Amino acid sequence: MPSRARASTLLAREWLFFGLIVLGWALFTISLGKGVSWDFRNYHWYGPYAYLNGRLGFDVAVAHQATYYNPLLDIPYYWLATHFHSWVAVGALGAAQGLNFIPLYRMARSVLRTEEKRIVAGAIALICMTGGLTLSLAGTTYYDNILSVLALSGLALLVCNREQLASASWIKGASIAALAGLITGAAMGLKLPEAPFALGFAGVLIALPGSAKHRLTRVAAGGIAGIAGVALTGGYWMIFLDHATGNPLFPYFNQYFHSPLALAASYRDERFLQHDLLHAILYPLLFSIDWRVADDLGYTDIRVGIAYVTLIATGIMWLMKKRSPDPLTDPEGARGLYTFWVVSYVAWLLVFGIYRYIIALEMLSPLVTVAAIGQWPITRRARLTILGALGVIALLFTNTSEMNRAPLGDPYIQVKIPAIPHPDRTIVLMAGEAPMGYLVPSLPHQIPVLRIDGWLIQPQDGSRLTAETKARVKGFKGDLFLIADEYEIDRARVAVLGYGLAIKWFECRDIESNMGDNLKFCPLARKPDAKP
Question: What are the counts of helices (DSSP H) followed by strands (DSSP E) for the chain?
Fold first, then answer.
């Protein structure tokens, strides 16, 4: 045991390597410019601003459903971007995303049974970091590749300490499981789509070797700490939403929570759920061929598909009790990797089906593939040849997406809105599906912004939120303005008509910004029969 503990200790040159990787990822993201994705323009800029300025309830549905997302994840980047040069914020974000390399490397080094395992582990971890969506999301604020740091770190704690979890004192094992559970739960508290990884984590606690007492102890410790992690990062927001709306996950799953503000609907994006068994079975192959099957973000990557097929083949060999007498990877460590990958994937498939949410599995897939093929009952040379060929094929079939980006420049958001003569007695309405939340911090702070038409709220949807918004607009005696995308202006015309308003077409002006949108700013007039 002492010799293995010493072998697992990181050397100074490994820490230096980690630093170079993180620095390199930061410089890489800076070279790409600012990420100005649809989601960023919708809520990643507005959410932290609204939270820090107490605008929930003052504004209405500005960012559709995302208006009510936990803002904690967005606050650090927003603070950096509003207090420092934009390249500082982008570089810090990139550095944080580069941290994924560390748990990937630690797990690879821990499970490998090869000479020069540090070099091989470094090469595998680098391949893990070059997936199509992993590279595409570099420097963007989707944050799936930030939360993956937590999910992978929780897994790494279990895999790298599997012997202690199996044979050390129950206090030691419980401590390791609790720390890993706290980290994994914190990720879920920040963003609910991380929930599949919490289930994968629980599966690993059960699957790793140990007596019944060891398993029971670490599952209990990991589960309790996981709940604490969720409460730590997300509990405050769930309590706040429950008090404000009657639904701690508002507006999601409202068919169960029955918030009076929204309809009895799920409000979830279910476009990518697989309802056909054959399609569900083939899903990893389908989205490896065509990304549109599983996401709105363009990418090309076959790592998940390769891992899926490899794991099926490995499972068949295990059932036939055919295993290599000279494995390239430790069987117990490999078991932990398989379990996390499979359980997380199945949970994701049943609940989400959106590829971006399993970017952690895209990163983990090369290591899982190595761990699986490393157990195959064929010659070592054959296994190495297969792994080399699959690595080359994966790299050849990797293609990144041209995400929406803007040149670095200060201030981060640059918006010029036409003059508003009476900001103290003005309400701004938004209509359409276009992302416009980023505009709100550039408006005078005293102006409330109400989206009257979009995914969450529509003029004739019959919800209490719509009724309260209509009453608020009807009883207001000041100036009313509309912001809408140029390509949705006819939809906006119909929406304001539902509020007894009409657009003053000849007074519409353009909103100038560095985000590349074509937005109109139009004064509104009340129709004669709709005056307060």
Answer: 23, 9
Residues forming beta bridges with residue 481, ordered by sequence position: 428, 523
Least confident piece of the model among 262-271, 314-323, 412-421, 448-457 = 314-323
Residue closest to 403 by CA, chosen among 149, 57, 90, 119 = 90
Record the pTM.
0.94
C-alpha closest to that of 311 among 267, 352, 367, 353: 367
263's CB contacts (< 8 A; 6+ apart) are 254, 461, 462, 463
Tens of pLDDT, residues 448-478: 999 999 999 999 999 999 999 999 999 999 9
Sign of CA dihedral 464, 450, 73, 244: negative
Cα–Cα dist 513/215, whole Å:
56
Contact 65/47 with Cβ under 8 angstroms? no
DSSP string across 132-189: HHHHHTTT-S--HHHHHHHHHHHHHHHHHTHHHHHHS-HHHHHHHHHHHHHHHHHHHH
Q: Give the Cα-Cα-Cα angle 283, 288, 290 (nearest 5 degrees).
A: 90
**DSSP-assigned beta bridge partners for residue 427:** 480
Residue with tokens 């899903």: 283
User: Do residues 134 and 399 make contact, with C-beta atoms less than 8 angstroms apart?
Assistant: no
Nearest to 214 by CA among 206, 204, 224: 206
Contact (CB, 8 A) for 385 and 326 = no
Q: Positive or negative CA dihedral for 116, 117, 118, 124?
A: positive
Taking phi first (over 0 means left), then psi (-120 to 50 degrees means alpha), and beta for anything else, what does residue 214 get?
A: alpha
Spatial separation of the C-alpha atoms in residues 439 and 437, rounded to whole Å? 5
